[in-house]
Amino acid sequence: MKYCSTRGSNRNTRFVDGLLMGLAEDGGLLIPQQLPDVTQHLPAWRELSFVELAQAVIQLFVDDIDTNELDALIEEAYAGFDHADVAPLVELGNLHVLELFHGPTLAFKDVALQLLGRLFELALSRRGQRLNILGATSGDTGSAAIAGVRGQSNVNIFIMYPQGKVSRLQEMQMTTVPDSNVHCLSIAGSFDDCQSLMKSAFADLPLKQELQLGAVNSVNWARVLAQVVYYGYASLKFSQPVSFCVPTGNFGNIFAGYLARRIGFPIARLMVATNENDILARFFQSGEYARGDVHFTLSPAMDIQVASNFERYLYFHFDGDSQRLSEFMRTFQEQGRAALDGPPPSTDFSSTTVNTEQTLAAVQNTYTAHNYILDPHSAVGVAGGLRLHDAAEGPLICVATAHPAKFPDAIARALPGVHPTHPRLEALKDLPERKTELLADLEAIKGYLREAVA
Ligand SMILES: *Cc1c(COP(=O)(O)O)cnc(C)c1O
User: Fold this and answer.
1) What mean pLDDT is predicted for residues 274-289?
2) Percentage helix, strand, coil, to 5, in the chain?
3) In the chain, at which end, N or C, are there fewer CB atoms within 10 A of the end residue's CB?
């Protein structure tokens, strides 16, 4: 399997080289040069466990890691999940919830980042390199990235977060990790400050070189690939094609569902559910991709205006025409909006927007009817799925992206007196914390990085 950039450069990149690449030279995202067709394997794959299916699927996209070595990494990546099924399905009346929050940090990002950390280690040791990962987080991604690489000898990870502006639980999920390669930087500023510090650091090429800086952001191809597995796994538990509704921010999660369907898994409809940050819902209805203002909602991991993985979908929509894609992206970059001639086909995605009130109602209704607590992100998916799905279409699976105990304030608002807990979060409360407070100043960050790396 060879990869190229959505915008045409970097042809014939191999999987392991792509792992450490981030964006391609032309600003595009890596994508397979051709997709496999899994249809012939499906009868046999119905019998596989999650880990076995992950091994079978991922192997089709990787031809530069020994199969036994890759199988072992995949097995290790999911050994720490607290459910034997890794991604279990729970039936709630006329829908199924696909629980993706059984990893170490209780959010779906673990499914990809537990594997990515191990793949990084392999790629770095092969090349005799070290990597210093710099990231900015407003919540979930930082802890999942830390959990993916903690304890590794050839990686340091530095996560910046806005002081006092991530929840205490989310902060403790980062600061209580004892491994010395983990650095939590509490920045006196906003999340935007953290992000612009990160951008400035990466734009400083001598610094990037000197410190071997890298990122683990959602444009990484291996993250998408790892996520294809649970769509396939869930779809094979049914005898007819299933539809998925996915609470969506950066479009990484549901894009993996799109790929799963393109390679032949029996998937009917894919539904995008957004919160008030509805750029994607508007696009799938009108064909216009137009930046809006960021709204702060109960589902903060989806408070995103520009969805980085969206470009990968456009590449397929334009039948691999990198020229057209590059023009679309350039127009968007320059004018804050870009449009297709008409809306994209509704066979690609359906979409809907779920506001705060509807999110709270979904938490309440699901609890009343099934005694099941949805986190606010998953509630957006359930509300959207119930709105868009028609029972005649076959089974509906709503993707649950986080455990409700991670979002106690939103749950308290929807369900006063109900306090979901999780042993992994309770255990944090007695642990010592480590963090460094820094000013939102590039020189301060540089100084810290240099000293830590030396
Ligand atoms: C990251 C995240 C999302 C959004 O996923 P995308 O891949 O960005 O669309 C939804 N829910 C939770 C809990 C998340 O952490």
Assistant:
1) 95
2) 45, 15, 35
3) C
State both tokens at 71: 């199988």
- DSSP notation for 183-208: EEEEEES-HHHHHHHHHHHHH-HHHH
Entry pTM:
0.95
Mutational pocket test of ligand 1: of 29, 106, 108, 283, the residue with most ligand atoms within 8 Å of the beta carbon: 108
Q: Which of the four pLDDT bands, split at 50, 70 and 90, describes residue 205?
A: confident
Amino acid 307: pLDDT: 81
Count of residues making up the chain? 454
Ligand 1: atom nearest CA of 246 is: 9
For residue 109, the ligand 1 atom closest to its alpha carbon is: 15
Give the DSSP per-residue string, 254-300.
Answer: HHHHHHHHHTT--EEEEEEEE-S--HHHHHHHHSEEE--PPPP-S-G
- Probe residue for ligand 1, chosen from 170, 401, 422 as the CB with the greatest number of ligand atoms within 8 Å: 401
Cβ–Cβ contacts within 10 Å for residue 84, how many? 9
254 CA to centre of ligand 1 in angstroms: 9
Structure-token pair, residue 43: 């009868």
Query: Which of 385, 404, 401 shows the shortest CA–CA distance to 393?
Result: 385
The span from the CA of 73 to the CA of 187, in Å, is 34
**Each residue's pLDDT tens digit, 414-432:** 999 999 999 999 999 999 9
Establish whether 2 is a catalytic residue.
no
CA of 299 to the centre of ligand 1 (A): 9
Query: Ligand 1 mean position to 442 CA, how many Å?
Result: 28
- For atom 8 of ligand 1, which residue has the closest CA? 250
| Three-state SS at 244 | strand
Pocket of ligand 1 (CB under 6 A): 107, 109, 140, 218, 247-253, 301-302, 377, 401-402
**Inter-residue long-range contacts of 450-453, CB under 8 Å, 24+ positions, other chains counted:** 450/211, 452/156, 452/158, 452/183, 453/132, 453/156, 453/211
Cα gap 253→416, rounded to integer Å: 31
Dist. CA 273–CA 26, nearest whole Å: 31
* Helix (H), strand (E) at residue 351: strand 350-353
pLDDT of residue 218: 76
> pLDDT digit string (tens) for 327-371?
999 999 999 999 998 889 888 999 999 999 999 999 999 999 999
- CB distance 311 to 283 below 8 Å: no
The whole-number pLDDT of residue 196 equals 86
